[in-house]
Amino acid sequence: MADLGIVIPAAGQGKRMGAGYNKQFLRLWGQPILAHVVRLFQLSGYVSEIVIVGAENELTQIGEIVDQHGFDKVVSICAGGAQRQDSVRAGVLALSPAIQRVVVHDGARPLLTLEDFHRFLEEAEGFPAAIMGIQVKDTIKRFNDAGWVTDTLPRERLVAVQTPQIFERHKLEEAHFRAAAAGYYGTDDASLLEWMGCSVKVLEGSQENIKITTPGDLWLAERILALREEQGSQAEIKNFEPRISRLGC
Asked: Does residue 227 sit within a domain?
């Protein structure tokens, strides 16, 4: 897992959030959403380099966040393209030649935990491409242009895809270059490798690893962080109790 690089596309404007500015700059527990995202990879011992891709007029603001929080693994803050796919391609090219494995993670997914990230990396070992996904709970139906249901998809074979997604660098670059040449745009990076004929492994994700898209998502993220803090405090109390008894208090 050495020589691992992270690409964080953070150029989306988040119109559904209705904030009037990039949702990655919204405050979550007093800090920008983007700071939560970058901090996770800053703390991971597996990560060598981080590249953040943003809108050209927001690069200075992203740089201020990086400097303020001391994220010294960030090797580049570069301008993105017209589509997310263009931004990821720019981010991959900004990584140093030493990076052989690339993780792409949304700039609006601040709740990924270090434990889940490291579990994902371990389970992804040996696969050229792997993604996080969670099994869908709802029944999914396909419909035609007239609005009539055409069929019901087997729920046990469906997943809602998340990031992080991890790839062998040469395969990810090839997929991006071939897609750009063909004018093909996928809904995520894994779909580009699928289009190219590469196999992609699905690994278990986390229900808490949500993407902040709407005000309701931000509210939910606050609640998840509050619950984590409460559980952490309870664990600290539990670990402290035996020490109290041993001290004879």
From this structure: no
What gap in Å lies between CA 51 and CA 7, rounded to an integer? Answer: 5
Number of domains in the chain: 1
User: Model pTM?
Assistant: 0.91
Does residue 247 fall inside a structural domain? no
| Span 98-140, pLDDT tens digits | 999 999 999 999 999 999 999 999 999 999 999 999 999 999 9
| Residue 110 domain boundaries | 4-222
Long-range CB contacts for residues 67-76, cutoff 8 Å, separation at least 24: 69/35, 69/38, 69/39, 69/42, 71/38, 71/39, 71/42, 72/42, 73/41, 73/42, 73/47, 73/48, 73/49, 74/38, 74/50, 75/49, 75/50, 75/51, 76/51, 76/52
243 within domain boundaries: no
CATH code of the domain covering residue 107: 3.90.550.10
Cross-strand bridge partners of residue 4: 47, 101
DSSP per-residue string spanning 161-210: EEEEEEEEHHHHHHHHHHHHHHT---SSHHHHHHHHT---EEEE--TT--
Tell me if 176 is assigned to some domain. yes
Nearest-angstrom CA–CA distance, 162 and 28: 20
CA-based radius of gyration for the chain: 20
* Residues in the chain, overall count: 249
